TrEMBL record:
This is F-box/SPRY domain-containing protein 1. It comes from Anopheles christyi. Pathway: Protein modification; protein ubiquitination. Component of an E3 ubiquitin ligase complex composed of hiw and Fsn. The lineage of its organism: Eukaryota, Metazoa, Ecdysozoa, Arthropoda, Hexapoda. PROSITE patterns: B302_SPRY, FBOX. Residues 64-256 form the B30.2/SPRY domain.
Length: 258
């Protein structure tokens, strides 16, 4: 029976495929894309009803109530972004993830620096994600990457992300790059570089093949920030100190520049 299905797989009409695939789980759909060119073509349509149903079933409805997910236009890319969003089990105890699944909220706790990592880390390939800060930055507001061994909470107001050899960050408050407890120069390399304004879009670009970390602001490439990254698994990470500030993160996939 299974051999018969595989033999006739390329001839199954799309409306029948849609019905069959609607009963399957995500890992089954991934396997189905390997069966034949016809099934692969069908599942490559990231806005068809199969991906729409999966997206609406798994992504919280709150995530669609503003423009947060407009940077990932297809249903499949929205679903992918959700699986890469902030990890509610890998953040400071003073942080909680809002019902939309993409935004963290830092509680107003004095003398504490608090961070959060994404659900999925990267060791191979090229990856980009967008970070948007809502609310005052305070004295420390750092965006970047960290391994699982980096701390995500500490006492006092401290540039936590970049404080050890397991994290790399850009402090948006003073435009300093931070790693291993040291400042690694002003970033971006511009005279009188403008400071970050709340609500501006920051894109983080991690190239695990070239071992570099770069940033964009409002779709303008700012240059490579860090080179010679070690061969480790890196997670999207932020660190904040200001009470009630909120930070959203949306995974974009591979950078569009190729």
């Amino acid at each position: 029976m299974e051999d018969d299905l595989i033999e006739y797989a390329p001839n199954i009409p799309d409306n029948v495929l849609e019905l069959i695939f609607s009963y399957l789980k995500l890992h089954d759909l991934r396997n189905c894309a390997l069966v034949c060119k016809s099934w692969y073509r069908f599942l490559c349509d990231e806005n068809n009803e199969v991906w729409r149903a999966q997206c609406l079933q798994k992504v919280p409805a709150e995530a669609f109530k503003n423009d947060l997910l407009t940077v990932v236009p297809s249903y499949k890319s929205k679903l992918r972004a959700f699986f890469h969003a902030w990890n509610p089990f890998d953040c400071s105890r003073h942080v909680y993830i809002k019902p939309n699944g993409f935004t963290l909220h830092r509680n107003p706790v004095a003398q504490s620096t608090d961070g959060s990592r994404g659900k999925i880390g990267f060791k191979h390939g090229r990856h980009a994600w967008e970070v948007r800060w809502e609310g005052p930055l305070g004295t420390v507001a750092v965006v970047g990457i960290a391994t699982k061994d980096a701390a995500i909470q500490c006492h006092g107001y401290y540039a936590l992300l970049g404080a050890d050899d397991q994290s790399w960050g850009w402090n948006l408050v003073d435009n300093l790059l931070l790693h291993n407890g040291d400042a690694h120069g002003i970033y971006p390399l511009l005279n009188n570089a403008p400071k970050y304004k709340v609500g501006e879009r920051i894109r983080v670009i991690l190239d695990c093949d070239d071992n570099t970390l770069s940033f964009e602001k409002n779709y303008e490439f700012l240059g490579v920030a860090f080179t010679d990254l070690p061969d480790k698994i890196f997670f999207p990470t932020v660190a904040a100190v200001y009470g009630n500030t909120e930070i959203s993160m949306v995974y974009l996939g591979a950078p569009l520049d190729g």
